[in-house]
Hints:
Elements: H1 6-24, E1 27-33, E2 38-41, H2 43-49, H3 59-66, H4 72-83, E3 90-97, E4 103-115, E5 120-129, H5 131-137, H6 148-164, E6 169-176, H7 179-186, H8 188-206, E7 211-216, E8 219-224, H9 230-243, E9 248-250, E10 253-255, E11 259-266, H10 273-289, E12 295-297, H11 300-316, E13 325-334, E14 339-351, E15 355-357, H12 359-369, H13 372-392, E16 399-403, H14 406-410, H15 414-424, E17 432-437, H16 438-443, H17 446-457, E18 461-467, H18 474-479, E19 484-487, H19 489-493, H20 498-514, E20 517-520, H21 526-534, E21 539-540, H22 551-563
Helix pairs in contact: 7-8, 8-9, 11-12, 13-15
Amino acid sequence: MYKINKYYLRRIETNKIFRRAFSAGDFGIWEWNINTDEVFLSENFKKISEYDSNFTKNMVEFISNIVYEEDKILAINDLNEHICGISAFYQSTFRIKSKNGDIKWVLFRGKIFKNRLKKESLFSGVMSDITNNKLLEGCDSLTKLPNRNFFLQKLNNSLKTAISQYKKGALIYIDIDNLKIINDNLGHQIGDLIMIQFSKSISIILSGRGELGRLGGDEFAVLIHEFNDMKTIKEICSDIHESLKQPFKIMNNHIYVTASLGISVFPDDSSDTNELLKFCDFAMYKSKYMGKNMSTFFDKQMSEHYFRKILIESELKNSIINNEFKIFYQPQIDALTDKIIGIEALLRWDNAKLGKVSPNEFIPIAENTEFIVEIGEWVLDRVLKLAYTWKEKGYEFNTISVNISPIQIKKVNFKETLLNDCAKHNIPPCLLEMEITEGTLIEICKEKIKVLNELSKSGVNIAIDDFGTGYSSLNYLINFPVSTVKIDKTFIDNIENKKNIALIRSLTDLSKSFEYKIIAEGVETKEQMDLLISLGCNLIQGYYLSKPLPENEFEELLKNQNLNV
């Protein structure tokens, strides 16, 4: 009778434990003999994938065949990196399409082992079904698209492939225009349904040409893994715009949506993922600036603007500490009496590296970084302090105006900060005028409109700057606490135009009914001023009467006015 070796028995028992563990878990075993192209797949592996080893001759081909088309580059790239010795272990997460059409998330792990005796290379590992976890981690909960993290992983892999194989890919950044307005007017539920329909519509349009992901909020991106002709990218952008000409039908509403697109090409524009996103973002904002609902490609000239933007961001951080800001003052004059009735404070920046930088350039950058809040508080403090000094000297003016950014208004303590500054400098709130643009009224939510109403009740004057250049609506003049409307320079430049004359006359008539001031900005000639006076608009601001002046020169204007009284 043969005696059974206890080590042999232990090995049998260990194998049983392993078999039970593998059969119970959501993972399967695979092994590929690289020399003979023989593939072993465990029963659990076949159950998860719904394919067996007869489906293919090796693991490279097997993975290539079962992987979801949009994840193919990522999956094959991870596999090849280990086979070529670039990575010590093989690990890859991607989607597979089972025989019955189900999409599953799987995690492959493995390692190549060398059998020197048999001169074999065995590639062994496990495949796990991680569908439930990955739906939470890799997919956007609202649209079910790849979320930001997973999309950037794909972009990074596609970028590596493009560089190694001397190919070109593209990234299309998509921002839905005016979604905030829709959310504010119709509610966030409608906004969410729009994004769901939007994502479905764009996915259909792409139809295998690219992959859509949601980066967050109303921002989406399309990854084009490979293309040969720029015409292909232009056609995709054109198709996206064309598809949005049809309204979305949501809860008995027909809602028209447009989108602004920004495109960068890799690796031509950059071989860095974050930089590509920034370039796309920059190009998209140019689309917004040019009127929205259009596509813009990033180019070399834009690159120069981008690096200048980065430099401005960097230099702004120390601008207050380095005393680089100056405040200039421009009078608002009643042309009938030649008296200064108001003053506008205008910020100027002179930097050692950049020289003089226009507010039109640095203010939007300061807003994006929210440094505008610190700048705004600095300006308000200086202006109110000076206003007190001038009033103490007996100089006459009704208001002093400060431009206010929507970013400032959105801050929780904005109202308290503003009123506290007035009290600090012994300035009555009625002496201060906040200048905000029409766009600001669109951007700020209902709660912040309430803040404007409260400030107005406290005596603070509110002026709409650049009236007529944005979303002009009489609704603002009726429903918001407006005290002053400033007609934009573009209308004054073409004041001979019959439509401009009609607009100015209508606003002048309305001002008498609504009891607010109308100031014409950018008046540069006597002819313009005379025509404005004939139309009933006699409050003038512009170079014809005075350019913006530094503090000491403006004080001379006030002093001379007092002497002439």
